[in-house]
Design goal:
249 residues; mainly beta; SH3 type barrels; Fumarylacetoacetate hydrolase, domain 2; 19 strands; 8% helix
């Protein structure tokens, strides 16, 4: 099932996507263009992995980490499908990062990899937008400013239930900018797979309902600018599209 959160006719709805339409709980149908999309879940904490693809580490001239390298993406970044991403004044190099996002469905601590997927509510697409200017060349993390601007966390469009994603570790990911393919990869190339990531994080912190784990991005970064439209796709999860606008004021 593909679930969505959206605003229509002045009200917040939690509905489903089927046959190319959004349906609210009362069964009323809405065209995709007629609603304001929200992130598909109320996010509790968003945790990201850096350098979880060896080819991405290589394009940055960095060694692939032995253990998952984590950061927290602040919730002020969150926007939904079709919402504008704001290009900050003075930024020189802003880029997209397509990522499989894993949504936790129930509380757990010290979850074994063997049982990790039992704690997953579903999957969605994340765009971990980054201004590379603010990542120090000799201290890669933490990248709070680089990844923490308002609007830098598009998420959606759907929360897709696990029964529709039989293997999260074998999904194609891609980014098109203005129709041009810029980034492509597959989650089978993860350094640390979804089960290992959940085990690692839950070993030191309790994962809660609504936590979202961003699992890393493959090789293929490039500049984006105001006026560009980013279109991210992951097998079975739909398409997350966001335009870029210049900061004003």
């Amino acid at each position: 099932m593909k679930r969505a959160r959206f605003i229509a006719q002045g009200r917040l709805h939690e509905g489903v996507w089927r046959e190319g339409m959004l349906f609210d709980a009362a069964g009323h149908a809405y065209q995709e263009e007629a609603v304001t999309w929200l992130p598909p879940v109320p996010v509790h904490t968003m945790i990201g992995l850096a350098l979880n693809f060896a080819d991405h580490a290589g394009e940055l001239g960095l060694a692939a980490p032995e253990a998952p390298t984590l950061f927290v993406k602040p919730n002020n970044t969150l926007i939904g499908h079709r919402a504008p991403v704001v290009y900050p004044r003075g930024a020189e190099y802003m880029h997209y990062e397509v990522e499989l996002a894993v949504v936790i469905g129930r509380s757990g601590r010290r979850i074994s990899a063997a049982h990790a997927l039992d704690y997953v509510a579903g999957y969605t697409i994340a765009n971990d937008i980054t201004v590379r200017d603010y990542i120090h060349p000799t201290l890669y993390r933490p990248a709070v400013k680089a990844k923490g601007f308002d609007s830098f966390g598009p998420l959606g469009p759907f929360l897709v239930s696990p029964d529709e994603v039989p293997d999260p570790n074998n999904l194609n990911l891609s980014v098109h900018v203005n129709g041009e393919l810029r980034q492509a990869g597959n989650t089978r190339l993860f350094i640390h797979n979804v089960q290992q990531i959940i085990e690692f994080i839950s070993d030191f912190m309790t994962l809660e309902y609504g936590d979202v784990i961003l699992t890393g991005t493959p090789k293929g970064l490039s500049h984006v600018y105001p006026g560009d439209v980013m279109r991210l796709a992951v097998d079975g999860l739909g398409v997350l599209e966001n335009p870029i606008v210049a900061e004003v004021g």
